[in-house]
Design a protein that fits this description.
The chain is mainly α and 214 residues long. The chain has one domain. It contains 11 helices and 2 strands; from the N terminus they run ββααααααααααα. The two termini are 14 Å apart.
Length: 214
């Protein structure tokens, strides 16, 4: 094993080739193996990025979804607890992908939530006005901070970003409640879910500082 600031980082993930699958009766890896692979690959990804100190490597890791596709990342990490390293990475990549695919919507929701979340807005570090391209830039910047920066601060910025968007969805839900109740309900529910995601990311930041995020 290598280490990153005292944290153990496995050298390589478990790989399952044809011989391994045959040894498992020709089936897919079981839950224990899948869990181990998820945590090992997350640790390796973060460890590799933080050891490289190379902007090109960081850029490639930030754009991992562009190469692999979000479903592949979901298969690998989405089933892990929110307050774990693979769980946090999944949420950060999913958040970046949402902003990348819908920058106008992200900008609209962020702008709607800014005035209700002054502190979170400052922590997120979004320049005003929160134009679509600014949201995309910061989403990339936050994820880059996982690999080349203060990882806990990156998680806190992501948490704050989620808090502002959640507040924006609540405000937009209030505005549309009398016109489109179904849309308002959807915004309220997704906003609550995103607020919970932000709380999990903040908890992950604390776990990283205490060397308990794995």
């Amino acid at each position: 094993m290598t280490t990153d600031g005292g944290r153990p980082v496995p050298r390589r993930p478990i790989r399952f080739g044809p011989a391994d699958l045959e040894a498992h009766g020709g089936t897919r890896p079981g839950p224990a193996e899948t869990t181990e692979v998820a945590h090992q690959t997350a640790a390796i990804l973060v460890g590799t990025g933080r050891a490289a100190h190379d902007p090109e490597v960081t850029s490639r890791l930030v754009g991992l979804v562009d190469d692999l596709g979000l479903p592949t990342i979901a298969d690998l990490w989405s089933s892990r607890p929110a307050r774990s390293l693979p769980g946090a990475l999944w949420r950060l990549y999913a958040l970046r992908e949402w902003v990348r695919r819908n920058p106008e919507g992200a900008s609209r929701e962020y702008a709607a939530g800014m005035r209700f979340t002054d502190v979170a807005h400052v922590v997120a570090g979004i320049a005003e006005p929160p134009r679509p391209e600014e949201l995309q830039r910061v989403a990339d910047q936050i994820l880059a901070g996982i690999f080349d920066g203060d990882l806990a601060v990156a998680l806190e910025r992501a948490s704050a970003f989620c808090a502002v968007i959640a507040a924006g969805r609540a405000e937009l839900a209030h505005d549309s409640d009398g016109v489109d109740p179904d849309a308002a309900t959807g915004l309220t529910r997704s906003g609550a879910a995103l607020l919970a995601t932000g709380e999990d990311l903040r908890a992950c930041a604390n776990l990283w500082r205490s060397r308990d995020l794995d």
